[in-house]
Design goal:
Blueprint (H helix, E strand, L loop, with lengths): L1 E8 L2 E12 L2 E8 L4 E5 L11 H6 L4 E5 L19 H15 L4 E6 L1 H12 L4 E7 L10 H19 L4 H12 L10 H8 L2 H8 L16 E6 L4 H13 L4 E5 L6 H4 L1 H14 L1
Parallel strand pairs: 4-5, 4-6, 6-7, 7-8, 8-9
Antiparallel strand pairs: 1-2, 2-3, 3-5
Helix pairs in contact: 2-3, 4-5, 4-7
C-alpha cells in the first residue's frame, strides 16, 4: 500500500515512498528512500517517524533508509488497548512483521531512547536479521548497578503517568511528563505545534504506564558490530544506563556527541549521520 511522493527537503528533491504496512491488529506508517544497505530507524517515546526525516537527505543517496511509527504513535490508528501487551519485546515483534511485509532480508538497526530498548529486544531474538545495531541513549534498563534509576523511574514517572491518564486530561498528563524529565511544567513555553506533536503520541505513554514489563533485562552484547551513542549533556536519569552500557560492551564503538542533548538526532543530524555512515561502511 505504497504511494510515490516527491518533496523538497533541505533544498534537495528526493524520492520518498510512504504508506502503511498491515500487521496484527493495526497498521504501521512508514517512509523510505534510497538504495543500498537498509537502515531502519526506531524512534523513542513521544516521538514518531518524523524524528528521523533529516536522515533521508543525509543518508538516502547511499543507503535504503526507513523510518516508521511504532504501534501507538502518530499517524497510526493508535488508541491504547489494555488487552494488548506493550513492552520492548512486543514492539520488536511489530518490527519483525514490518520487515517481513517489506521483504527485507538483513538490515542495520538504529534505536533512539525507548527505541533503543526495542532495538536491543529485536537483536536478542532476531540476531540473524541484523548487520549492525546502533543505540543512542536508551532509557533505564534492568541492568546491574542501575537499580536506583530504575526504581526512581517506576515511581517518579510510571506511577504518576498511570494516575494522570485516569483524569483523561492531556494537560495533566503532559505536566507529569515534564515534571519528571525537566523538573517543572513547561507547557506554556513550548510552541503550540510542538506541544501538539507530543500530545499526538500520548497513547504510547499510556501503554508504557500500564506495561507489566516496560524496562526488561536485555542482553547487550552481540556478534555483529555495535555502536553506542551518548550526548555530552545526557540527562541524569539516563546516565547510569548509558555509562553501564559502555562499560559492559568494550568491543562496541562508543561515540559521544559534543554540545548535544537527548534530542541529538534532530539538533545534530549531520554529525549523527556522519558517525552512522562511517560505522556501517567501515565496521
Amino acid at each position: 500500500m505504497k504511494r510515490l511522493n516527491s518533496i523538497y527537503f533541505y533544498a534537495f528533491t528526493i524520492l520518498i515512498l510512504f504508506g502503511f504496512v498491515p500487521i496484527q491488529e493495526t497498521n504501521l506508517f512508514f517512509k523510505e528512500t534510497g538504495n543500498g544497505e537498509t537502515i531502519i530507524f526506531v524512534h523513542g517515546s513521544q516521538e514518531d517517524y518524523r524524528a528521523f526525516i533529516p536522515q533521508f537527505e543525509l543518508l538516502g543517496k547511499e543507503f535504503h533508509v526507513i523510518t516508521y511509527s511504532r504501534r501507538y504513535n502518530y499517524p497510526n490508528e493508535h488508541s491504547y488497548k489494555k488487552e494488548t501487551p506493550f513492552n520492548p519485546m512486543t514492539e520488536a515483534e511489530d518490527l519483525e512483521k514490518l520487515r517481513q511485509q517489506m521483504g527485507i532480508e538483513e538490515f542495520n538497526i538504529v534505536g533512539h531512547s525507548y527505541g533503543g530498548l526495542v532495538a536491543l529486544a529485536y537483536a536478542n531474538k532476531y540476531q540473524n536479521r541484523l548487520k549492525s545495531i546502533t543505540v543512542s541513549e536508551p532509557p533505564v534498563l534492568s541492568i546491574k548497578g542501575c537499580d536506583e534509576s530504575l526504581s526512581y523511574t517506576e515511581k517518579g514517572l510510571i506511577e504518576k503517568l498511570k494516575a494522570s491518564f485516569k483524569t483523561k486530561d492531556t494537560t495533566v498528563v503532559m505536566k507529569a511528563i515534564f515534571e519528571f524529565f525537566v523538573g517543572k511544567d513547561i507547557q506554556n513555553q513550548i510552541p503550540p505545534e510542538a506541544l501538539q506533536a507530543l500530545k499526538s503520541n500520548l497513547p504510547e505513554m499510556e501503554a508504557l504506564a500500564n506495561s507489566e514489563n516496560p524496562f526488561p533485562n536485555l542482553n547487550t552484547t552481540f556478534d555483529f558490530p555495535t555502536m553506542i551513542i551518548t550526548s555530552e549533556n545526557v540527562m541524569p536519569i539516563l546516565m547510569c544506563t548509558n555509562e553501564s552500557l559502555i562499560r559492559i560492551t568494550p568491543n562496541a564503538k562508543h561515540v559521544r556527541i559534543p554540545s548535544a542533548s537527548h534530542d541529538m538526532w534532530m539538533t545534530h543530524p549531520t554529525v549523527m549521520s556522519s558517525h552512522l555512515k562511517d560505522f556501517i561502511l567501515n565496521e
